[in-house]
Amino acid sequence: ESFIQMKQVTKSFYKDTIAIEVLKDVNLEVDKGDIFGIIGYSGAGKSTLIRCINGIESLTSGEVIIDKQIVSNLTGKELRGFRRQVGMIFQQFNLMPSRTVYGNIALALRNSGLSKQHKEERIMDLLELVDIRDKRDAYPSQLSGGQKQRVAIARALANHPKVLLCDEATSALDPQTTKSILQFLKDLNRKLGITIVMITHEMGVVKEICNKVAIIDQGVILEQGDVFSVFSNP
Ligand code: ADP
Ligand code: ADP
After folding, report:
1. In angstroms, what is the span from residue 199 Cα to ligand 1's centroid?
2. Which of 59, 108, 136, 188 could form a cystine bridge with 158, CB 3.0-4.6 A?
3. What radius of gyration do the chain's Cα atoms show?
4. CA nearest ligand 2 atom 11, residue
């Protein structure tokens, strides 16, 4: 049984009485430790799909299961607890501009139940992990794109999630910074054994670090499997 499963997931949005089906019978299987890429053009349904994985969107039908938990059945309170097991990073980093690097990471630990001292230790460990200790007291506006994304990664990992979801995480970065962030994610995957699911419209990203890939078009998964076999099809 796979670590993350989407089973016959459909998602429709409703405009007045008209249903727009954005995900159509999506079946996805991600194993523990995978770096799983989901690639498709703009409008294909990638963001909706990843929002279904972390429970932000309710499903129209089907099931999402992560590590034996049926995400789609969780209630509001359970869902908040569950979200702590899922880290997420974004194209636009989504850092709080009025808070320092330290403060941004601290936010993720607000409801962690850790003592003040343990929070401080955890934050210092995270700063070390993403190699950004010297920027501890800087504000996001004082950071480069790559540094911002590393802070966002630290924040996403604060509560030791089982999964890291990446939403076009390198699309706002120049090619060289993209390479270094991708390499960094690959190292994290190896070092922490964390499962990574990333959505992207860039083939290069998938080829650089993913071991598995799914191709999505107009809400339909056309193909999925090992990167090597999917991309070597004639
Ligand atoms: P992608 O991430 O691949 O660009 P999205 O998941 O953002 O694709 O969008 C897929 C389709 O769903 C698009 O046609 C988009 O307009 C539509 N869509 C996304 N979110 C909503 C929403 N909240 N209400 C209505 N339509 C939506
Ligand atoms: P603000 O309170 O203005 O939002 P920050 O976002 O910078 O300030 O910090 C959020 C939390 O982290 C606060 O409780 C603050 O005391 C603490 N904090 C900020 N920087 C450090 C630091 N270098 N060492 C220890 N705690 C810090």
Report:
1. 14
2. 108
3. 18
4. 103
What is the model's pTM? Answer: 0.91
The answer, yes or no, to whether any atom of ligand 1 lies below 6 A from the CB of 219, is no
> Cα 147 vs. chain centroid, distance in angstroms?
18
How far apart CA 177 and CA 76 sit, in angstroms, is: 37
| pLDDT tens track for 148-162 | 999 999 999 999 999
Specify whether the CB–CB gap between 154 and 127 falls below 8 A: yes
- Does the interface predicted TM-score (ipTM) exceed 0.90? no
Query: Is the CB of 47 within 6 Å of ligand 1?
Result: yes
User: What is the whole-number distance in angstroms between the Cα of residue 101 and the centre of ligand 1?
Assistant: 31
How many Cα atoms are found within 13 Å in the side-chain-facing hemisphere of 121? 5
